[in-house]
User: Fold this.
Amino acid sequence: MKLATWNVNSVRQRETHIRDWLERVRPDVLFLQEIKCEAPAFPALTFQAAGYAAEIVGQKSYNGVAVLARVPFTVTHRALPGLPAEDAQARYIEIETGGVTLIGIYLPNGNSGAEAGYAYKLAWMDALRARAAALIEADRPFAILGDFNVCPTDEDFAKGALPAGDALVRPETRSRYRSLLWLGLTDAIRALHPSGPVWTFWDYQAGAWPRDQGLRIDHALLSPALAERLIAAAPDREERGRAQPSDHVPVVVELA
DNA sequence: ATGACTGAGCATCTCAGA
Assistant:
């Protein structure tokens, strides 16, 4: 089973990139983040022509997530359970396929909106931990893939790529990420690449890509049963070198 | 010479991204 996640920074700007990538890599399931549109504007027919069905949790201008799959699946949640009902940000989709639960997330960045914006990020992470804990308790095989907006350790960002105190590296952010791992989840990339830079994002500014000044913020966390099946996990750096790329590249995970 | 990004939208500027 081949799973993938990709923050595309506008699905309409990246329609051709995504279609070409699907045809080259042929993942079973691809989660998208920052589609930046509502469902009627989503180019579903393009991906359908490549053999992929789409489910969309859209929002105008900002955020927005979706899933593309060439295997049968059912959507089970379109919002993160446990958040206040008035929360309307499109950041979560959960599906079931082949006896496993797969979750695609776009975790809040936390640098905008001052203290309230950062508090929202932490509340979101607390709710995500509760959801993961419930699935662990139910002994359900599951994976969480997406843009976590977390650099888990100092090895996960290039020196100078982030200001001190950034929401991606604050201790409160990292402690919540660690609390996910301590439920028994496996960070798929670090399980296979234990140290050193494994960037998934390069800023558009200041020559971050040519200087290889990146971040590792797109992750795949595996429940114990799925971690036993881990074969490969890596970002697809090649995509960042294309014309008009997203600032994130796809992360691909292969399970036996 | 003294710069240097991208996308969406009630748009020619603001917000958000990270």
About this structure: The first helix of chain A runs from residue 15 to 25. Residues 125 and 176 of chain A are 6 Å apart (CA to CA).
